[in-house]
Amino acid sequence: MHSTLDNDYSGLVENHANLQQDYGLLRKQFDELRQQYENLRRPFSVTAEVPYTDVWTFKPVASYPGKHPCEKPAELMEHIITSSTRPGDVVADFFMGSGATVKAALTLGRTAIGVELEEERFLQTKAEIG
Questions:
Q1: How many CA atoms lie within 13 A of 41 on its CB side?
Q2: CA 55 remoteness from chain centre
Q3: For residues 59 and 75, what is the distance between their CA atoms, to the nearest angstrom?
Q4: Measured distance CA(86)–CA(54) in Å, rounded
Q5: Model-level pTM greater than 0.90?
Q6: How do residues 35-66 score in pLDDT, each as one tens digit?
Q7: What pLDDT, in 10s, does the model give residues 21-32?
Q8: Residues 121/96, Cβ–Cβ less than 8 Å
Q9: Residue 64 — φ and ψ, nearest 5°?
């Protein structure tokens, strides 16, 4: 005959209480980590009107006096920045050229860093963005 009524289970009760406390701490840490992850997720600005594909069609920049030979359309730069950053993020362009990336970043509420070897181009962009 096996009797369990005479056994002392106080150790199990204490272990259970400790496990509950440990679970509470782990759950709190998990919730904090999950919130950090959610805060770091980037927005994905794809809609039915603007599908995300590998073919993008943007009108080229029209010719004008002083146009940079490789100037990118503002809409293209805004699309790239919106798809890959959040307002307040830093966007860096180390080959600034016409400044299209910097201008788009500032327009979209990002912090912009622009670096350009040609001082005249750099000063022109600096004057344009104020």
A1: 8
A2: 22
A3: 9
A4: 21
A5: no
A6: 988 887 766 666 777 666 677 889 999 998 98
A7: 999 999 999 999
A8: yes
A9: -155, 160
CB atoms near residue 127 (< 10 Å): 9
What percent of the chain is helix, strand and coil (3-state, nearest 5)?
A: 45, 5, 45
State the CB neighbour count (10 A cutoff) for residue 74.
Answer: 16
The sign of the CA dihedral 16, 19, 24, 27 is: negative
Task: Please state the length of the chain.
Answer: 130
Residue with tokens 């010719």: 63
Tell me the CB-side half-sphere exposure of residue 15, using CA atoms within 13 A: 4
List all residues 6 or more positions away from 129 whose beta carbon is below 8 Å from its beta carbon: 99, 102, 103, 106
- Tokens representing 24 are 């509470």
